[in-house]
Amino acid sequence: MKNFILSRLQLLKADESFRGQLLKGGLGVGFLKLCALPLTLLTSIILARGLGPEGLGQYAFVMAVINVLVLPIGPGLGQLLTREVSKLQYSSQWAVLRGLIRRAHQWALIGSIVLMLFIAAWVYLKPSQGTEESGGLLLIGSLLLPLLALNFLRTSILRGLRHVISAQLPDLVVRTCLHFIIAIVLLMIGVLTPTTAIVSQICSVLLAFIIGTWLLRRVRPKELKNEAPRYQTRIWLKSLPPFVMLAIVATLNGEIGILALGLLGMDEAAGAFRVAQSGALLVVLSLTIINLVIGPHITRAHQADDWERLQKLSKKSARMALAISLPLALPMIFFSGPLINLIFGAEYESIAKWPLAILAVGQLINVGFGSVGLFLTMSGHEKDTLIGQVIALLVSVTMTITLIPSMGAVGAALAVSIGLVTWNVSLAFYFVKRFRFRPSIF
What's the protein's topology in the membrane (predicted)? Predict the structure, then answer.
């Protein structure tokens, strides 16, 4: 009896320790994100004022292309790496873990080289419909591919080893701060151009990579040094496609507008759309913060089959998020022109006011639906979330093809907003199916 009681106490202690780790990690990452957000917005303002609409559009298009191309060897491979590192460390399979890390780096480097060659061939054989400078910017931007891919691997390995704050520190703090500082300096000395802005990104990512490598070496398990690598390449390759698919769908939903405008050579419209996106992100900030807080509570209530608590969490969190977002969204909807003139400059007022108003409406509707995606994910229904993302992407692509050629940035804003609303409606359907109550503020 005594042994049984002691064992139960040990289990409870371990459970509390695990909960403490989750809370500490979640709050730590949330704090880093909150610190990085104002700097990111300020950097966007600096770039908008320094580059002008056309220059900002060229820069935004290059970064969107790079962010999409890096998905298979960055976020996609990284998610698989996080899962496998955690499993292999838990089971003390150090030889396989060392082999996985080495193989992932090989894939990332080889994939980066292939993608860089692809960009070079594409620029040479089929120049962009914009200026020739866009092709040169893409070639310079391609230098980001290996750095971003390796950064994602560092982040994923650290997360798999349960060092979640150290995993986010290089990107959220080092990269964000350095890019902000360099952008200010470039603007002050009068040499801020799309080319120097991309070089600033390269320098920022490079420093983040160096810091990330140092952090990883500090916490890397000592057992890895004494083991010869063992490879399970076929198993890893078989597991990779779902992670890549998830990363591609999630990222394309946010980048489809910029990509379409850039491919059509609408650099000024792309700049206007990027400005509108930067402003509209403030509308969804409250929901992002609330999601960081309520995630563990959703899991706990779902495990306890406490449906009443889940309903209260859904309703109260949606009300709180909407109450904060509404005062931010209304000025963007009804006074978008003067706001853009004040913050980003007069040259953006006429071309970005309607995209900002449309995106603000879309994000406000998004907030009004509440944390539908988080509720499904934290309760083990990730597949429902993925289906909703795929449906939304298909709608966004269809609207993009239909609206952007004739409406430019306004068409991009409509396409993205319609896709966002479609995503929420799809998830709301699955939400009601799983939880038997509506995700509503009422």
Answer: Multi-pass membrane protein
